[in-house]
């Protein structure tokens, strides 16, 4: 039957612009003026340790000891009041409810659980939400995708992955899965689709309706 594996931020939740706005404001407060677009360009493709290293190199000193905790609290507070789904995500999820599915995300479990609650999607993924915290290596390595496939009891080649980041696409492809690069969230900028294609996306979609056009033939093979 196959399975659907969803990234979360920028795929189901339109969260990347919110999170990067908070990050930009936080870096600005440290003395280095940063806009949303600059935050997206500098930090969105990096792992957290590399984000910290980049910020410290930019401001010329270590970040405060409470930097991560304060940033996380501010980000989650924004999610509680402003988070919305990427348009069409919940309709797509429910249209394919007959298929095994899960979330495979680089985000922490507490962030994922909060966002699913805000979006009213907890029941759609009950017990099938997997964070990269559960595996040794995060994206672009294949570990989280292979872990997810094993938990769903399906072969990697039978999995269709929906991703919005080049690193996520690379990880899915490295796992032997088919990846759709989705460019539908508010953080997407010019040239992003080309980066997803270069990372190995088998298809590019600019809406969940376009994802559906690729998904139905994939599962009807």
Commentary on this structure:
It is a single chain. By secondary structure, the protein is of the alpha/beta class. The chain has helices at 16-29, 36-43, 48-59, 67-82, 89-95, 109-119, 143-152, 166-174, 192-199, 208-219, and strands at residues 3-6, 101-105, 129-131, 159-163, 178-182, 203-205. Helix 8 (166-174) links the parallel strand 4 (159-163) and strand 5 (178-182). The relative contact order is 0.17.
Uncertain regions spanning at least 5 consecutive residues: none
Largest sheet entry: 6 strands, parallel
Radius of gyration: 17 Å
What's the total count of β strands?
6
Can you list the strand order of the major beta sheet?
3-2-1-4-5-6
Oligomer: single chain
Backbone structural class: alpha/beta
Quickly describe the structure.
With 221 residues, the chain is an alpha/beta fold. It is 48% helix and 11% strand.
Task: Summarize the helices and strands and which ones pair or pack.
Blueprint: E1 3-6, H1 16-29, H2 36-43, H3 48-59, H4 67-82, H5 89-95, E2 101-105, H6 109-119, E3 129-131, H7 143-152, E4 159-163, H8 166-174, E5 178-182, H9 192-199, E6 203-205, H10 208-219
Parallel strand pairs: 1-2, 1-4, 2-3, 4-5, 5-6
Using brief descriptors, characterize the structure shown.
221 residues; alpha/beta; 6-stranded parallel beta sheet; 10 helices; 48% helix; globular
């Amino acid at each position: 039957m196959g399975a659907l594996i969803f990234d979360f931020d920028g795929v189901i939740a339109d969260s990347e612009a919110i999170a990067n706005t908070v990050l930009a404001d936080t870096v600005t407060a440290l003395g280095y003026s940063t806009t949303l677009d600059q935050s997206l360009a500098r930090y969105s493709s990096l792992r957290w340790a590399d984000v910290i290293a980049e910020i410290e190199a930019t401001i010329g000193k270590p970040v405060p000891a409470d930097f991560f905790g304060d940033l996380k609290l501010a980000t989650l507070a924004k999610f509680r009041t402003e988070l919305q789904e990427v348009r069409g995500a919940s309709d797509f999820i429910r249209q394919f409810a007959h298929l095994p599915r899960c979330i495979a995300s680089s985000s922490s479990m507490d962030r994922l659980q909060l966002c699913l609650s805000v979006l009213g999607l907890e029941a759609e993924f009950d017990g099938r939400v997997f964070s990269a915290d559960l595996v040794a290596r995060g994206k672009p390595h294949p570990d989280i995708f292979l872990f997810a496939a094993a938990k769903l009891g399906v072969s990697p080649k039978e999995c269709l992955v929906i991703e919005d980041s080049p690193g996520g696409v690379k990880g899915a492809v490295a796992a032997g899965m088919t990846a759709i690069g989705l460019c539908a969230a508010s953080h997407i900028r010019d040239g992003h689709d080309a980066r997803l294609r270069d990372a190995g996306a088998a298809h590019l979609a600019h809406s969940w309706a376009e994802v559906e056009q690729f998904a139905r033939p994939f599962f009807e093979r």
